[in-house]
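Checked the freezer inventory, then went back to the computational side. Two predictions to log before the end of the day. The first one is the construct we discussed on Monday; recording sequence and tokens without edits.
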Amino acid sequence: MYRINKVDCTKKFYWEKAEKAYISNYMWMNNEYEPKVMVQMCYDDEALRVRFEVEESMPRSIYTVPNEPVYKDSCVEFFVQPTPESDQRYLNFEMNSKGTLLLGLGEGRHERQQPKRPNGIGFDIKSKVQADRWSVSYVIPFTWLSNIYPDFAPVPGHVMKANFYKCGDDTALPHYGSWHIVTSENPDFHRPCDFGEIVFQ
């Protein structure tokens, strides 16, 4: 279980109040490449905020156009069912170190659609690459999320289902890591049955 704390995002260092989760379940490959990945989430009255920090030097980052296959690059991913009791569809946010976003919506791997994004709605994506690490952060506006999931309400006690991932299909050392363990025999992140719980505090 991961707990999302409410924070005042107008203050500096608000991420210090966000709980940390770690991608530590590396599966399927036997190349001993398991980059350390820390994930944080928090929220305010307007949006859900997501941040990944990856210990990885020289990340592959080829794709620059939204919805290109960034999972082939060094990539971090957030898959989430905001209202799992009433809607089985989940969103996938996949992003490389340049902040290029692949976004999808649907109930499974083969029914993905690109959700509509009204004018003025953005995810405020920020990315940073350093010598031995890289990070990305973004916001998911509640107004946008509620248009897709009318039953969604970011109130204390609300439970979402989700997983965090790290991958790199076409990197020099392909790898597949997750926060909540994935039970498939072959690489497959599109498994809501393996999502963990995310709880608003």
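The second is the one RB wanted added to the comparison set:
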Amino acid sequence: MATVEKTEGGELSRRELLRAGTAGAVGLATVGGSVALVRPNQADTQEQQIVRGGQEHVHAMGTSGDIDTSLYDPAVHLESFDRGRTSPLPDGRTLREYEITAVDRTIEVAPGVNFDAWTYNGTVPGPTLRCTEGDSLRVNFTNAGSHPHTIHFHGIHAGNMDGVFEIVDPGDTFRYEFDALPAGVQLYHCHAAPLKRHIHKGLYGGFIIDPRDRILEPARELVMVMNGFDTNYDGENEVYAVNSVAFHFQRHPIQLRVGELVRIYLVNMTEFDLVNSIHVHGTFFKYWRTGTRPDHYDYTDTVMLCQGERGMIEMTFEHPGRFMFHAHQSEFAELGWMGLFEVHG
């Protein structure tokens, strides 16, 4: 059986978890409401073997068990886009109308590890809103939570639609109306004070504005929101992830095909850390910062982002196999921000 260890007082900080993880396989469990270290038995370790190039290597990081995906599935969120209710306008443009509700909800950020979140529409991240450049947007916001909230959209809009001073108290509603500008990878989040608490608790999501006069090449499109969770309220994250669940895409690799064009909309909403990053094994990718300049991209395999930074990645894999993607801060990777692409020939 797996054994659980914790520090005096029942809490295990991320630094202690990291140090313990360097000696063996690492998992996460809850002990008295805190994240604790799990040392898998030999059978658990063998199940995590990864075959690369005919050689077997034991990957000694991961979690035991799985989350309840009936409440939230990171893989479903990966490819879900809310395009709103659409209707034509007299000027030929499209009106898109969205419904967003803030609600308090306990979410599972690792198997058996719960986090008391503030959410948009019940999930962290909130729904990925998608529209076309120049569309007229109407976002009906209801605050069903226990604290005042707002929605601040990154982009171009009027001052009274900025989601900073228009505080929405519990039980109240507000309608945001603005045009979708500029095209690119945007985001939205709560801007009520204290800002770091409202963001860290989970009030954020992706906001994709497709270009009107430029058609993107058909691709497998994925939304990855990088985030972290302070599960013991010490001002440091104990769990890191993409789309909120530690090691989920390691346990459930993303299935791709050799030569398939993959487009990732990448957003960093990690609180308490200055930067986050993504590194993809086995290939290089094109990276458009914010996705606003089609003529300007980097060709690399690693990018770093501050909170609120985002961009668009396009890549293909030339070889079949299992390829990691993870934060290139080792601490983040060892505490959950790690996954796999499983590429088929």
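For RB: Residues 63 and 220 are 28 Å apart (CA to CA). Confidence is low (pLDDT under 50) at residues 1-10, 18-59. Let me know if you want it refolded.
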